[in-house]
Design a protein that fits this description.
Radius of gyration: 22 Å
Structural class: mainly alpha
Order of helices and strands: EHHEEHHHHHHEEHHHHHH
Number of helices: 14
Helix content: 40-55%
Distance between the termini: 35 Å
Strand order of the largest sheet: 1-2-3
Oligomer: single chain
């Protein structure tokens, strides 16, 4: 048995099945410490063929393939941490909501199949946009030394509590909880543990973080249907709009000005100034967001590969850039430039595990 799945319909989309850590690997030391990020099967196979299967540790490679299979297409599960699956939907996004699974769900609300598909097509388009920005922001965060230093610091400060109960959630779960799972075993101030992570999430505009190195940026709430998830952010990042249905919607340019003026501070916080410049409406070069989308994937895969196979991959960087370029549908030269950019921000050995 390689996974545990609940009995959803056969056409259930990615993200609606639940995977478990195969029992034969539950005691493996690599799955009882730092996050074990798996690679999508096609990418892992390309890397192995390019580098040469004989260079890899056979048992470790067998586990890599098995756990990659468990995580499927990586649109919802990207590995394991604390013996639990890492649920993260931004690595390989799949925003197609028009399957029969979702159409049938809207049918219960009285929608015809045609109406449901029209609604879901529009929702998919909106998700493409918002998830693209969120993923680009992940790429910027994970090549930002200030964020990575604070990320490491808070995980080190609360290492024992995180090991017992995981990283606390943002929003109403944090605000309303008197304790977190495992708190009865904790020898620390649970309230301070929660407050510290909440402050970290608010400072960096995150909904949470299911595991180290996979921050979950805030999504859009258009419209805001529940204030609780955004209450902690309202004073520090973003804003809430209310337009009565008796008002006409302003023209496109006027609406953009209204939103921009309300959303961006005159003096942005220093730690986010670079990103604010990227996303400001006056910046016509929005392709920088797409660039950071690719950088997010590149840095993720490079870290995952080297944490387990650093010695195997020595002096194979040019082969890796070629494989990553083919997988991400760009030239090897583009990958090489991206790696130079990451190195300029984080140092030349950023992807190697600590000595």
């Amino acid at each position: 048995m390689t996974s545990i799945e609940l009995p959803f319909p056969s056409d259930t989309p990615a993200g609606f099945t639940f995977v478990g850590l195969p029992p034969q690997y539950q005691a493996h030391p690599l799955l009882n410490g730092d996050p074990y990020f798996t690679l999508p099967g096609p990418l892992l196979s390309q890397v192995v063929v390019s580098i040469g299967v004989q260079r890899f540790d056979a048992k470790l490679l067998e586990m890599d393939h098995a756990l990659s299979d468990v995580c499927g297409d990586h649109s919802s599960h990207v590995g394991f941490w604390l013996r639990q699956p890492i649920n993260f939907c931004l690595l390989r996004t799949d925003n197609d909501l028009t399957s029969d699974f979702f159409v049938q769900g809207l049918a219960e609300w009285g929608k015809t199949a045609a109406e449901a598909r029209e609604i879901l097509t529009r929702a998919s388009q909106r998700l493409d946009w918002t998830n693209g920005v969120r993923k680009g922001y992940c790429g910027w965060l994970l090549t930002n030394r200030t964020f990575l230093d604070e990320h490491s610091q808070i995980l080190q400060t609360w290492a024992d509590q995180v090991e017992q109960s995981g990283i606390p959630n943002m929003g109403p779960v944090v605000r309303d909880a008197d304790a977190v799972p495992g708190a009865e075993r904790a020898e620390c101030d649970t309230g301070q543990f929660i407050r510290d992570f909440e402050a970290f999430f608010i400072r960096w505009r995150l909904d949470g973080m299911p595991a180290p190195f996979v921050p979950q940026p805030m999504g859009t709430h258009l419209p805001v249907v529940d204030l609780r998830p955004v209450l902690g952010h309202m004073r520090h990042g973003g804003t809430t709009f209310y337009l009565p249905d008796t008002y006409p919607v302003p023209s496109r340019d006027t609406l953009r000005e209204i939103v921009e003026e309300a959303l961006r501070e005159v003096s942005p916080p220093d730690h986010l100034a670079e990103w604010f410049e990227i996303v400001h409406s006056d910046n016509v070069a929005k392709n920088r967001i797409a660039h950071y989308v690719r950088i997010f994937e590149i840095q993720h895969y490079m870290r995952a590969l080297h944490i387990r196979h650093a010695s195997t991959l020595q002096r194979k960087k040019s082969l890796l850039t070629t494989v990553l370029g083919e997988y991400l549908h760009v030239s090897g030269d583009s990958i090489e430039r991206d790696l130079r950019l990451i190195a300029s921000r984080l140092g030349s050995d950023w992807y190697l595990p600590p000595a």
